[in-house]
TrEMBL record:
One of its GO terms (molecular function) is metal ion binding. This is Phytanoyl-CoA dioxygenase. Coiled coil: none annotated. SUPFAM superfamilies: Clavaminate synthase-like. Pfam families: PhyH. Belongs to the PhyH family. Keywords: Dioxygenase, Iron, Metal-binding, Oxidoreductase. It comes from the Eukaryota. Its cofactor is Fe cation. Gene3D superfamilies: q2cbj1_9rhob like domain. It comes from Parathielavia appendiculata.
């Protein structure tokens, strides 16, 4: 679902209504061409710094259909205040040898780019991006956030030929607050197409799909204290407010996933409870994007201490002020 252009002050009433109805919103040309070029150049600079001789060769796994096979080593779990590199599963042969050059082997770079990388940090304030549409702060205000906090920023490289598929999921499973509050900001730095594995969305599913499971750190007293696991969600399964509930699923009928092809520079907003996915990239064209999430940091919203991603010493980054 494409939308009309958002002004600097935030989302238009029509855009806000569309996001609330569908759970996602595409804003074309949210980033200027010069900003896109700057962020791609920064991505390449970061890839140049990767030293595979000292890297643990951590592969990023999305967990598969059950979510049980998710990446969870210390390199991953301690990345909340660092810039780290995670590799594609298919960049290795059956014997575990890397068979792709490093620039074509990285699945993603994360998770503190919004603080440690000046070009990516500038997106939060809108600086160095003349003509930016719908700055993150303006969008957050439009969505009613009181104290939005930024977390899990990352570049995702949907590599040519091997870029892995991501099964249907909701972001609140991984960035859980009680009640759920996560919203994803997903910026295309290259064209995302059906051919190279663009996103697909199940429109309206955020209103009826509950947060049934959560990705958490394993309990050190019960297990080996390392890694992650999926557990049943014992907290709130829907955000605050009216218009949410499993009974609404019947209204959805036989809804199908809708592809979200976008041009470089587009912003896609994604509700934390929205079911979305992407297919494997079997083409010769890569698909680099930048994404981060915000959660509500105000009183009445609890960020669980079992979540895989834990805040740095200074806390998650405040978007306002």
């Amino acid at each position: 679902m494409s939308s009309d252009t958002a002004p600097e002050e935030g989302l238009t009433p029509d855009q806000l209504a569309a996001f609330q109805r569908d759970g996602y919103l595409i804003i074309p040309d949210a980033l200027s061409p010069s900003t896109v070029s700057s962020l791609l150049a920064e991505t390449q600079r970061l890839l140049d710094t990767l030293d595979l001789s000292t890297h643990p060769l951590t592969r990023f796994r999305t967990g598969g259909e059950t979510g049980d096979d998710h990446v969870g080593d210390d390199y991953f779990l301690s990345s909340g205040d660092k810039i780290r590199f995670f590799l594609e599963d298919d960049a290795f042969d059956s014997s575990g040898n890397l068979i792709k050059p490093k620039h074509r082997a990285v699945n993603k770079i994360g998770h503190y780019l919004h603080v440690l990388s000046p070009p990516f940090a500038s997106l939060l304030s809108g600086s160095d991006n003349e003509g930016m549409k719908a700055s993150p702060a303006a969008v957050a205000r439009s969505l009613g956030f009181t104290d939005p906090r930024v977390l899990q920023s990352m570049v995702i490289c949907k590599q040519p030929e091997i870029g892995g598929a991501v099964p249907p999921h909701m972001d609140s499973t991984f960035l859980y607050t009680d009640p759920p509050s996560a919203v994803g900001f997903w910026y295309a730095l290259e064209d995302a197409t059906l051919e190279n594995g663009c996103l697909s969305f199940l429109p309206g599913s955020h209103r009826w799909a509950p947060v049934e499971k959560r990705l958490v750190r394993k309990d050190a007293e019960i297990k080996d204290g390392k890694g992650t696991e999926m557990v049943a969600n014992q907290g709130s399964k829907f955000p605050k407010g009216e218009g949410y509930g499993e009974e609404l699923q019947n209204e959805n009928g036989q809804a199908e996933y809708v592809s979200g092809e976008v041009k470089a520079g587009s912003l896609v907003l994604i509700h934390g409870n929205l079911l979305h996915k992407s297919e494997k990239n079997t083409s010769q064209k890569g698909r680099i994007i930048y994404t981060f999430h915000i959660i509500e940091g105000a009183e009445g919203f609890e960020y669980d201490k079992r979540n895989w991603l834990q805040p740095p010493a200074e806390g998650f980054t405040a978007l306002y002020g």
